[in-house]
Amino acid sequence: MIANYGYKDGSGEYYISIDTDKCLQCPVEQACTRACPKNMFEIITDDYDDQVAAIKQAHRRTLAYDCTACKPAGGYASLPCASACTAGAIKHSW
Amino acid sequence: MYTAGIDMGARSVKVVFLEELKVEGAPQLKWGVKKTHIMFPEDLDMDVAAEKAYTEALQLAGLAREAVGRVVATGAGRKQVKFAQDNVTEVSAGARGAVFMHPSARTVIDVGAEEGRGIKAAPDGKVVDFAGNEKCAAGAGAFAESMSRALQLSLKDFGEASLRSEKTIPMNAQCTVFAESEVVSLIHANTPKEDIAKAVLDAVASRVCAMARRVGIEEDVVLIGGMVHNPGFVRSLQGALGVDRVLLPDLPEYVGALGAALIAAEIH
Amino acid sequence: MTTSAFATTAATAGEKKEYWRWEESAWVDETMNWRDAKFITAGIDVGSVSSQAVVVCDGKLFGYSSMRTGSNSPDSARNAIKAVIEKCGMTLDNIHFVVGTGYGRVNVPFAHKAITEIACHARGANFMGGSAIRTILDMGGQDCKAIHCDEKGKVTNFLMNDKCAAGTGRGMEVIADLMQIPIAELGPRSFDVDEEPAAVSSVCVVFAKSEALGLLKAGWSKNKVVAAYCQAMAERVVALLERIGVEKEFFITGGIAKNPGVVRRIERILKLEAVKTKYDSQIAGALGAALFGYTLVQKQGVPAKAAAS
User: Fold this and answer.
1) Sequential DSSP letters for C294-306
2) What is the H or E stretch that residue C42 is in?
3) Fold type of domain C132-274
4) Is the ipTM of this complex over 0.90?
5) b (16+ CB within 10 A) / e for C260-287
6) B209-225 per-position pLDDT tens digit
7) Which chain B residues are within 8 Å of C177, Cβ to Cβ?
8) What fold characterizes domain C25-128+283-300?
9) CB contact (8 A) between residue C204 and residue B43
10) For residue B149, which phi and psi values (nearest 5 degrees)?
11) Chain B residue numbers touching A73 (CB-CB < 8 A)
């Protein structure tokens, strides 16, 4: 399942998508939960009883602000969360 | 020799005339400012309003049209100012004007009714980088305006009320429309108005601050835009930024027009 | 004179119409008898604006209710289940398994399990629109969901937007109030225009409101403004759908399905017609929850502890 967490508002579209099928055999011991400086990732049991990564509820409506530390206005090279996940499950839309 | 900056907003025009004075042989800009703020009805075409306002401003300043060497426009309606030789964005004009008023400022935070943004400025007032949250009322003055209406307070009383509160209540709703219902439930729960006002202004400040962090916050910080008039917001912003002081310009309405006039003087 | 002026004001205030109001409802399939069923399950969808309760007998839809959400989730859930069981002529004790869903799902006191509305909507849409459904749009009171699912109604891709009021039922209520047009009339009236206007340019509801007022001042008819607003909403929702990828068949659930002004414009942009259903579009979540309950009760049996009210 591809889970898109985030939102779209007048200022833009901000989604972090997690390909949860890739979480099923996580090669890096849930590194996403440790890589994010804002501690935004958690492991949940989803509706189909799989253990998968998710963005914590408290951050789902504030991604544009919460991710600013990793995204300076002058541009960014790599994101800690996406780099830590070697399975390539994590993508940002903006 | 004069230059003019004209800030064409949605409902008002601000005009600044800048006089270039010669000091000790070298040409130097002196703040010989003459300024005019004219409101116009919404149904008036922007180009007509610009022309009318400029003519009126010239009269008030006692200047002949020919005395002005160069006109630069800024603001949302800058492209409708037909008689301007050039136009610049609100970001460039705002940064230039703010740094002219406060030369030590390196971070310019601009919070108007419809947008909030953080600008990193060079010592000469040029824009190094900026990040904004446009077209969403949540990160702008409109959020506070809307909530003050829910509390039946004027924006001014709203800001002052927040100063009387030391409480920190987090607001869950990010959207202005949803936040209105949240404010209504806070009212029903008998939360004091001043605590609600502070919660609202803290929320706007934290969003604006997050935007400013994208450009990097370097002191001094100067605030421009309509929220300058809101002391409660200024306090919330200081708290969110973690700085001791946020500088405020003396003539906040004219920062953009002044910046445009300065840019006009530099390019002519 | 002064007194009469005050009286007029008071009278006007008292008559202030709530243009966003909609009717509560309950329905039962009179041809069925629940006493014949082996397993009776219920789904409760506590949304931000409305709450639904659905009763399913051996995997078949038996009855439902759609009520306004009150000030707290437990009471709203009780209110919804009460409406449906009264209509069905049963008591809560007759129900073997209850699943809660929606924004208040963890606060349904008599539920045996909580499942997210994303999974429940997909399951419900699969039942209501058939197994060919791949793309589901759910537009609720305070959120908007785009879901892609497989032939079993299992979610394969989803997104949700509950941060911003634009593109939600709430955004529509704001415009109904502003235009002083009852919410159910917005859709039909949006087609009563000489020519289709371009969409309102502001996404943000707050700015769209000022834009709409400006258009009225510029001489636009109310219907034309509503048309421009419906078009903006449709464009916005389509952008969300495109993020997950639109695939045939397409199904719309939630309150917005009842607004042809938005639905027909979405279909026009997507060049794809939404599958029509004979059921109430708002029950998809609760129906999906009840169906999940049916699967669980078949697998695990009836829980020892009866559902407590």
Assistant:
1) HHHHHHH-S-SSP
2) strand C40-46
3) Nucleotidyltransferase; domain 5 (3.30.420)
4) no
5) ebbbbbbbebbebebbebebbbbbbbbb
6) 988 988 889 999 999 98
7) none
8) Nucleotidyltransferase; domain 5 (3.30.420)
9) no
10) -65, -40
11) 120, 129-131, 214-215
